[in-house]
Design goal:
This protein is an alpha+beta fold. It has 3 domains: 87 residues, Integrase, DNA-binding domain (Double Stranded RNA Binding Domain), CATH 3.30.160; 79 residues, DNA polymerase, domain 1; 160 residues, Intergrase catalytic core (hpI Integrase, Chain A), CATH 1.10.443. The chain is 48% helix and 9% strand. The chain is built from 16 helices and 7 strands. The longest helix is centred in the middle third of the chain and has 20 residues.
Length: 391
């Protein structure tokens, strides 16, 4: 028999019991065997008439009056076609960012180069999952992404790279119909200072001596090849003997290993050809990679060796990638234009090539001094090379 539920009835109802309210149809009190008491609402789903039960909340967290008002509010929504129980089940089964990341790693990452896969997996594990992993994909907001970005911004470059990856992940979420928009849109990236670090004139001899004396000569040869070719680390570590024509003096970098994803053919200087010829004398006839790893395949990194070599040479703040910049510096200092520098280094975007425009200052100044001397009949000023300076 229905009766109006009051606080007194809630407190004194026997265990267990189910009591229905006489004022609001479907509103009731359920007393469980352990003695806990909850307010409930029974309703029929408008779409098919199926009966559902929604738990409003427990007593005393919910007072009787507040629970009755909530039941009335829900009934109005249900009359309009809402289904609180169904919506809750849908929400619970909705994919989380952890699940989105797992799918991204399984379906998207295999298309990328191994080095890119490793970088993305590390960023997902260390930065994205800890902050966003438990959130539902559909519920992630601009504020969530902004908080992630600000939390990483002590290292601006890394923060920007992580957010770029998050944007790519949510772009795939839109494609996979997990949500309709990308919450990364309009996130303002950090300002980044472009590095202009090159081997200085006195650092190069010290590096040469340190390379000669280092116990890991495979790592030393990798560094020599990086310095002499301006190649990327990944291209060098994965280089195969089949990619080189020592007679013609050509290195054909497969598109699978290059950043621009196209084959890149570059000529090899005499020192590089000599280095490769010396390596060839030592390698096993069946070897595939120039620099094989201990457990098969190619060598993965030279991080520890690079740190030891720089310490031995007394060089601070120089990254392996700065050898590539040093190569560009030597070309610019010799008077070669940006198109030559870009072609040798494998650049295809003008904006990337023009990052090195400042390296042409010395040859351009020398040229204008020479032209002035010719045209004026006066001797040209001495030019002090700036090539190789670090800023």
């Amino acid at each position: 028999m229905a009766r109006k539920i009051t606080d007194k009835i809630v407190k004194t109802s026997p265990v267990p019991s189910l009591i229905w309210d006489e004022d609001v149809k479907g509103f009731g009190l359920k007393v469980y065997p352990a003695g806990s008491r909850s307010f409930i609402l029974n309703y029929r789903r408008k779409s098919d008439g199926r009966e559902r039960r929604w738990t409003i909340g427990s007593f005393p967290d919910w007072g009787t009056g507040a629970a009755r008002d909530e039941a009335k509010r829900l009934k109005r929504l249900i009359d309009g076609g809402a289904d609180p129980v169904g919506e809750q089940k849908t929400s619970r089964s909705a994919p989380t960012v952890d699940e989105l990341c797992a799918r991204f790693e399984a379906e998207y990452l295999p298309r990328k180069r191994p080095s890119t896969q490793r970088t993305y997996r590390n960023q997902i594990k260390s930065a994205i999952r800890p902050k966003l992993g438990k959130l539902k994909v559909a519920s992630v907001t601009f504020s969530d992404i902004d908080a992630l970005h600000r939390g990483l911004s002590e290292t601006p470059y890394r923060a920007n790279r992580v957010i770029a990856l998050v944007s790519r992940i949510f772009a795939m979420a839109v494609r996979w119909e997990m949500r309709t928009d990308n919450p990364v849109r309009d996130i303002e990236r950090n300002q980044e200072q472009r590095r202009r670090r090159y081997l200085s004139g006195d650092e190069l001899p010290r590096l040469t001596v340190a390379l000669a004396g280092h116990r890991d000569q495979q790592a030393a040869n990798i560094i020599r090849l990086l310095l002499l070719t301006g190649a990327r680390r990944g291209e060098t570590l994965t280089a195969r003997w089949a990619d080189f024509d020592l007679i013609a003096g050509i290195w054909t970098k497969p598109g699978a290993t290059t950043k621009q994803k196209t084959d890149h053919i570059v000529p090899l200087s005499a020192p590089v050809r000599q280095l490769l010829a010396d390596l060839r004398k030592e390698f096993d006839e069946g070897a595939d990679y120039l620099f094989p790893g201990r457990l098969g395949g190619c060598r993965r990194d030279i991080k520890d060796a690079w740190a030891a070599i720089c310490k031995s040479a007394g060089i601070d703040g120089l990254r392996v990638h700065d050898l590539r910049h040093s190569y560009a510096s030597s070309l610019a200092g010799a008077g070669y234009g940006l198109h030559v520098i870009g072609a040798l280094r494998g650049h295809t975007q003008p904006s990337t090539i023009h990052r090195y425009a400042h390296l042409l200052d010395d040859p351009l100044r020398a040229a204008t001094e020479r032209a002035g001397a010719i045209l004026s009949g006066q001797p040209s000023a001495d030019i002090v090379p700036l090539k190789g300076s670090s800023t």
